[in-house]
Amino acid sequence: MEINKKFRKKISSDKKNVNLGKMKLKVMTFNIRGVKSAKPELELLLQKSKPDILLIQETFLSKKSYRCRIPGYTTIESKTELTKGGNGLLIGVRNQSGLVLSEFINYPTWMVGLVQGKTKRNENFRINVVNVHMPSWGIRKKRTMNEIQSFLKNRNGTKDAIIFAGDFNMDIVRSDQFLKKSGIDFEHSRVSNSSGSRWNKNDMGRMIDHIFYYRIGSRPNWCIANKYLNISDHFPITTEWDISAITRPPKKRKINVKKMELVKDQLISSNRFDLLATDRIDINQSTKELIDTIWEETDRLGAITDLTDPSEEKKIFLSTKTIKKIKKKQKVFRLFTKSKIDIETYIKAKNVAEKSKKQDSKKFYEKKLMKLNEYLTTNESQKMWNFIKFSTGKIKTSITAGPVLDPNNVLITDSESKLKVWETHFKNLAKDSTGNSRTTEKWESLLNNDVQIFPECDDSITWYDITSALKNIPNNKSPGMDGIPNEVWKLVSSEASPTSKVARIIFRILKIIWDTGKIPETMTTSIIVPVPKKGNLQDPNNYR
C-alpha cells in the first residue's frame, strides 16, 4: 500500500509538471429568454461554473434599458431592435481571467467581440468570439446568413482563432455545413451528455445551440449541457480547452487616505527618505524613488487598500433560505424530467421559489432606498451620485477600448497598434501647422509693449509659495499616473519651513524645476480621456 501511495504521488507530480504554462479556457453559451427575471439564478450559475467567456442570447433588453452588468464580468451588448429584428445579445469576459474584451462588430442578430490577452511566453492571444441568435425563417435569416458568410470570408486566411457559438436554430449537420461554406474549417464541440439543447413541451427537443471553434490549438477536454437547469427552455452549453497560460494583470491598489492620516507623522519622517533629500541624486532618479518610497512606506504602515471591481464586490441579494428553495426547485425539475413526479409538484416548488425571490428582491430595494436616504441626510453628495450611477447601470465605460480606424481608413484591433493610432492622432492635433509658435513676428505686432514689469517672477521659488499652492489643491480627486493622491502631498503644507524629510525632498525637486526648467520624466506623462462626439466612434476624429 505504501508503494502504491508513492507511485500515485509520483504520477500526480508528473502531471503537474506537464501542465506547467497551461490554463483552462471555459466557454458557455446560453439562450436565457429574458435576462431580467433570470439574473439572480444566472449569477448563481456563474458563481459555480466560472466560465471565462460567456455568450448570452435573447436578453430582451432594448436600447432604452440600461447596460446589463454581470458581477465579475466585462460585457458588451447588442440591444433589441424591433424594426431590424434581434432579441438582444451579450458577450462577457471574466475579469480575473487576464483576458480583455472589446466590441468588434454589432448586428441585431449576431455580434463579434475581440478577446485578447498575453501568454506567459509573451505571445499575443486573440480570439474572435461570435455570438449568434439565428432567426428561424424568412428574409431576416437569409440576411443574417449572408452577413456572417461575408465576415467569415474576410477572416479566412488570418491567424486569429474563432469561437462561434449561440442559438443556430439548426441541427449540428446544417450548422456545420453553413459555417464551412466560408472556407474556414470549423470544428464542433460535441455535447456528451444530451441529445438536445432545449425542452419542447416537457420533452427533449433538438440540439440547436452549438459551440464551433477554429485555431484554438487543442481539442475540447469536455462539452456538457446543464439540462436540469430550468431558468429557460434552453440549456447552458459549456466547453473547456487547454490553452497557454494567460498573464493576469496585477491587482490594482490605492493609498487609503483615512488610514494614511493615522500614520502621517511616521510617513513624512521615515528614515528611508534620508538619501533622497541630498543633492547627490539626479532629479529624475530622485522623483522616481520618492514616488516608489511613498508607496512602500504606506504599504509598510498598512495604509494601502486592494481595489476590486465594484461589480465583483456586488453579492447576490438572495437569502440562504431562497437559494435552498431554488436548489430544491432544480432537484424537483430533474425528477420531473425523468417522469418520477407529476407536473403539479414541480409547479408548486417553482412557485415557492419565485415567491421567495420576489420577497428578497423587495427587501433588497428597500435597503437601497435606506442607504440613499442616509447619503441625502448626511449630505454626502459624491457617495449619493456614485450609488445612483452604480445602481442604475449608468457608469462610465471605456468607449475607446474598441477597434479604431487608422489614417488610411484601415480598422485596427490589437492594443499596441491602437495606441499608435491614438498617439498619431493627438500629435497631429498638437502640431504647429502655421509655425507661429516658433517665432515672435506675428505676436509682436499684436501685443502692447508698454507693459508693467514684475521682477519677482525671476526670483527662485520659496517654501511659502509651495505650501500656499498645496493648501489650495482640492481633496477627493483622482490621482495622476503615480497613483499618489493630493492628500499625501498636503501632509507637509502646515510646516513653516521644510523640516520633515518628505518636505525637504519636495522643496529640492520643485526648486530645481523652477530654476532650470527641467521637468522629471515621471511628471511628463498625462492621462488623456477622449470624449466622444456624434458620428462613427471608430474614427478618432469624432472625439475631442
Spatial strand order of the main sheet:
3-4-2-1-14-13
CATH class of the largest domain: Alpha Beta
User: What's the rounded overall pLDDT mean?
Assistant: 85
Largest sheet: 6 strands, mixed
Distance between the termini: 73 Å
Q: Which topology of the largest domain does CATH recognise?
A: Deoxyribonuclease I, Chain A
Percent helix among the residues? 25-40%
Determine the CATH superfamily of the largest domain.
Endonuclease/exonuclease/phosphatase
- Tell the overall outline: globular
| Domain unit count | 3
Produce a short descriptive summary.
This protein has 544 residues and is of the alpha+beta class. Helix content is 38%, strand content 17%.
Explain what the structure shows.
By secondary structure, the chain is α+β, with helices and mostly antiparallel strands. It folds into three domains: 22-248, Deoxyribonuclease I, Chain A (4-Layer Sandwich), CATH 3.60.10; 254-307 and 455-544, no CATH class; 310-387. The chain is 38% helix and 17% strand. It contains 16 helices and 18 strands. The chain has a six-stranded mixed β-sheet, with no helix packed on it. Strands 5-6-7-8-12-9 form a six-stranded mixed β-sheet, covered by helices on one side. Helix 9 (320-337) packs antiparallel against helix 10 (343-377). Mean pLDDT is 85; it is low at 1-20 and 396-400.
